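Lab channel / #folding
Pinned by the channel admin:
"Please post every new chain as: sequence first, then the structure tokens as a reply. Keep commentary short and put observations after the output so the thread stays searchable."

First post following the new format, from NK:
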Amino acid sequence: MRKVTWLHRFGLVSAVVAAGLATTTVAAHADGYDTPRSATADGAGSTYAAGLAAAEQRARQAVLAVGHDCTPGTYNTFMIYSSPGGGTWVFRSTNYAVCVD
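Reply from TO:
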């Protein structure tokens, strides 16, 4: 009986993952989702969560203003200001999505 090495097993798993990623990309293009869109916006709130949500919501709305029927996409969000007492939190967020033309 042949012993399966970790390198052989790793190669098999890598091949399966690569096939899955390739299929996902093809399926997305087949549905017409082939136009990448991104937008950046700032948002502020009186709490950390409110500021974060405001920035992400504004970035998402900016993407939807130029594209229609877009995927949820991903966000890159970071804090750009917080007041010394913690009463104001300001964030900058970028939404990366793929939309139908």
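NK: The chain is about 45% helix and 35% strand.
TO: also worth noting, Residues 6-30 form the longest helix (25 residues).
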